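Sequence only, no structure available. Ideas?
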Amino acid sequence: MQTNSSPSSATPSSSLFGGITLAALAALVALPLILPSATLATEIVIFAMAALACNLLLGYTGLLSFGQAIFFGIGAYLSSLVMIHLGAGLIIALVVAALAGAAAAALVGALAIRRTGIYFVMLTLAFTQLAYFIAYTASDWTGGDNGLLDVPRPPLALGGLVIADLEPAVSYYIFVATLFLLLFVAARRIIGSPFGSTLVAIRENPDRAAAVGYDTRQFKILAFTLSGAITGIAGALYAMLLHFAPLSNIELPMSENILIMTIIGGTGSLLGSLLGSTAIVLLGDWLSAIWPRWLMLLGIALIGVVIFMRGGLWGGIEGVVAKLRERRGGPEA
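Reply:
I predicted one. C-alpha cells follow.
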C-alpha cells in the first residue's frame, strides 16, 4: 500500500552530522534530564528505534506493514535465548537479534510483496498472527503466555575486557541512546544514497520505477531486511530493559503501536520517529495514571493529531517554522 509523503520531507540535509542529527542528539541528551526516570527515557529511545525502522518501510518505500511485531519479537526471543542458554555477551546477542530480524523480514517481505494494496496489508497481518501462535505454542522456548523470564543485561565488553556495566539505568540509557544515534546517522546515509532515492521513487510511482529498469521487488525486500534488522535490535534491547521477553512483544498490538508512533511522529521523517515514540510512550505513561480507560483519551489525542497535523508532529513543527519565516519575510521552509 502506498502512502503520500512529501518528497521534500524524505530528503535529508547534505550534512549527516549537522541539522537534524544535532537535533536528535539534543533530544537524546535532554530526555533523561527532563523525564522522571532513565528507564522511561530508555523505553522511548528503544521504540524510536523501532519506529525509525518502520519509517524506512512506510515513509520511504510506501509499504504499510503490520509485520513489525514479528521482527521485534524474534529479536527479543532469540537474543534472550542465546544469553540465557549459551551465555552470549551483549554484542553477540545484538548481532543475533539483527540477523534474525533481517532473515524474518526478508522472508515475510519476499512473500508479502507478491501482492499490493490491501492484500499486502492483510498478508502482513496474517504473518503476525502466525508468528504469535508459533510463539504461544512453543512454550518450551518462549515461555508461552508467561514469556521468557530472567533475561540478563550483560555488560558492554570487547575481547573479554569489560568497558561498561549496563545494569545501572543511566548507563543502559547512554548505551541505547548511542546505538540509536549511530543507527539514525546510518539511516540518513541510506536515505541520502541512490538506494534511498530509488526507494522514494518506488513509493511515489512503482510502475514508473519499474519501467525505467529498477527491480522494485528486490528493492522492497532489501528495505524490509534493513527494517527487520533494526527492529530486531530494538526488540533485544527492550527484553534487556525489562529483564523479560513477554509474549506481547510479538502480538499484533505491538505492530499497531510501532505504526502509530511512526505516523504520529511523521512519515518520511527520521526525527519524527523520536517525536512519535516520545509522544505515545509519555501519553500512555501519564494517562494510565489518571484513568483506567486511558486508551480512549489516547485515541482522542491521536485523532486530533491526524486531523490537524497531516504530516504528524514533525510536519506540525515544520508548518510553524514556515509560518514564522513567512512573517519575517524570509523564504518558506
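Strands lie at 148-149, 156-158, 161-164, 244-245.
Hope that gets you unstuck.
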